[in-house]
Design a protein that fits this description.
mainly alpha; globular
Length: 129
């Protein structure tokens, strides 16, 4: 549903070659955040590319990826500045914080399995981070 996910994710890893493999934990974290972010109302009213960019941003924060959460490369490939992502990142973050105990529990349960690299069990960053 989000055709840009792989391009954004590759750019996020500074890997723009189409044959480049993404780290599996990063790939699954982005998918998890997209899945929990597309269920509630606010994110689904946003452009899918913005939702994808916000999921990449939050995955980078959650996994502590080098280069910080948003790079010039990501800005170039997505067309979004860090400030453009704030509202959607904060919305997905709030769903991420509540995923285990909310109506999103089924998504949480799916992504806490070994198959998905247990990304749902990763420590959720504080909002300040």
């Amino acid at each position: 549903p989000y055709p840009y996910i792989f391009e954004f994710a590759r750019a996020s890893c500074e890997c723009t070659d189409p044959g480049c493999e993404l780290p599996p934990v990063f790939h699954n974290m982005v998918l998890y955040l997209l899945e929990i972010g597309r269920l509630p109302y606010l994110p689904v009213t946003k452009n899918p590319s913005l939702l994808t960019a916000a999921a990449v941003y939050l995955a980078r924060v959650t996994l502590g990826m080098p280069g910080g959460p948003w790079t010039k490369t990501l800005e170039y490939y997505t067309g979004y500045k860090k400030e453009d992502l704030k509202e959607v990142v904060l919305a997905i973050h709030s769903y991420h914080v509540a995923a285990e105990d909310s109506s999103l529990k089924s998504v949480f349960s799916k992504y806490k399995t070994k198959k998905y690299r247990r990304v749902a069990l990763k420590t959720v960053p504080r909002e300040e981070d």
